[in-house]
Structure formats: structure tokens, C-alpha cells
Specification:
The protein has helices spanning 4-15, 20-32, 36-46, 53-80, 84-107. The chain is an all-alpha fold. It has one domain (4-82). Helix 1 (4-15) runs antiparallel to helix 2 and helix 2 (20-32) runs antiparallel to helix 3 (36-46). The longest helix is centred in the middle third of the chain and has 28 residues, at 53-80.
Length: 110
């Protein structure tokens, strides 16, 4: 399935190559629609062009930074959100430890 918005934004980028706003709109759309790989592929294809290669590489580097930031945010989000199983396991361990401690204190009290 083709993203028509992405196609239109890319055509605008190619037509207005020196316009930062055109690049920004394209990359923002790709980021919001989880299509950074598609953006990277398109800029990588332009990287060999003599006139556009330098700017294409600059945009490609920016896309790489965005992708890494996204991966890092997903990784840290997973660390912060404990699963229910983990929470139940912690509760069970606490209850078992409390029962064990109470049994020990009862057995050793005069």
C-alpha cells in the first residue's frame, strides 16, 4: 500500500531541494507514521548525486539520529513499565517472606 501523503511530500522535497521546510515536513511525516526507513532509503538513493549528495547525507544522518532516539525511548519505556506478572511475583515474594519471618519469630519467642 502506498502512502500518498509521503509520495506528495517527497515530490515536494525533490522539486524544492534547497528548502528546509520541505525536508522537515517529509521527515516529520515519516517519523509520525513510522516510516523512517522509507525516508532513509529515499535519501540514500540521492546520496550519490553530485549536486544533492551532501544535503542527502546530512538528512540521512538526521534520520539515523531520530531512529536511534525512537529505539532508546522504546527501550526505556519498557524498563519503566513493569508487567503485571512481575508485580504479582514481587507481592508473592513479599508475602512469603513475611510469613516466614513471622513463623521464625513465633518459633524463637519465649
Amino acid at each position: 500500500m502506498t502512502d500518498q501523503v509521503l509520495e506528495a511530500l517527497w515530490k515536494n522535497v525533490v522539486a524544492r531541494w534547497d528548502d528546509d521546510a520541505a525536508h522537515g515536513a517529509f521527515i516529520e511525516h515519516c517519523q509520525n507514521s513510522d516510516q523512517l526507513v522509507e525516508a532513509a532509503v529515499r535519501y540514500r538513493g540521492m546520496a550519490g548525486d553530485r549536486e544533492r549528495g551532501e544535503l542527502a547525507q546530512k538528512r540521512l544522518n538526521g534520520i539515523a539520529v531520530l531512529a536511534l532516539a525512537r529505539l532508546e525511548s522504546l527501550r526505556t519505556r519498557e524498563k519503566r513499565e513493569p508487567t503485571r506478572i512481575g508485580a504479582y511475583l514481587l507481592i508473592a515474594i513479599f508475602v512469603a517472606a513475611s510469613i516466614g519471618l513471622l513463623a521464625y519469630l513465633r518459633a524463637n519467642s519465649p
